[in-house]
Design brief:
By secondary structure, the chain is α+β, with helices and mostly antiparallel strands. It has seven helices and ten strands.
Length: 213
């Protein structure tokens, strides 16, 4: 499985070296693949059948090819869900869930007008600054900007936590235009997250993850 949401441990993105983060990823896979399986609790797979390859991908061991085929087919809807992002004006209270208050202060210190900053929330954990830059790239058409420069760069993005980020825009008027744009909300703030499934092709396939103990 690929494109899994990065687990969040104690308010921060889980790291692969953290055994609890790997365990959380395994449990997430069990939930995504759903029920209807042959296990005693009705699940298609057990957490011990899952081996994390990274914080966004994992191998899953099934008892047979038929079980794998049935699980992937029946979990198709659960592996695809709609993500509705929220875009709002920046307010100081947004910092209450800040993982790094010092870096946020550094991000804000050169800002002349805080109204040029927007807060993007409800993101899938693991969303990168680069993907946010691409999201705002289409806004150039909305604001009729003929300049070749990018209105948002990776330096214009600051994560407060794994699901919320501050985005610095060129001006307060640009921020207001984007927030009021129905087109931007429809095409950029509503997207689909797809957990993809592929046959394992490595010569060595793990038999399962041993759990946190």
């Amino acid at each position: 499985l690929d494109n899994l949401p990065n687990p969040v441990v104690e308010g921060a993105l889980g790291e692969y070296d953290d055994v609890m983060a790997r365990q959380a990823l395994c449990e997430s896979v069990v939930k995504i693949l759903g029920g209807g399986g042959s296990n005693a609790d009705g699940s298609a797979v057990d957490a011990l059948d899952v081996f994390p390859a990274s914080m966004s991908s994992a191998y899953v061991a099934f008892k047979s090819y038929e079980d794998a085929e049935e699980c992937i087919r029946s979990s198709k809807r659960d592996r695809l869900w709609e993500v509705a992002l929220t875009l709002s004006p920046y307010e100081e209270e947004d910092d209450k869930d800040d993982d790094d208050e010092v870096s946020t202060q550094d991000f804000l210190k050169d800002v002349d007008d805080t109204k040029s900053i927007v807060c993007l929330s409800n993101m899938v954990p693991g969303t990168t600054a680069g993907s946010i830059v691409r999201m705002f790239a289409s806004a150039k058409n909305i604001i009729d900007d003929n300049d070749d420069t990018t209105i948002v760069t990776t330096d214009s993005v600051h994560f407060l936590n794994p699901t919320t980020a501050l985005v610095r825009l060129p001006s307060s008027s640009v921020a207001q235009t984007i927030m009021e744009s129905t087109e931007f909300k429809r095409h950029q703030l509503t997207s689909r997250h797809h957990v993809k499934a592929f046959p394992a092709k490595r010569s060595k396939v793990r038999g399962g993850y041993g759990g946190p103990n």
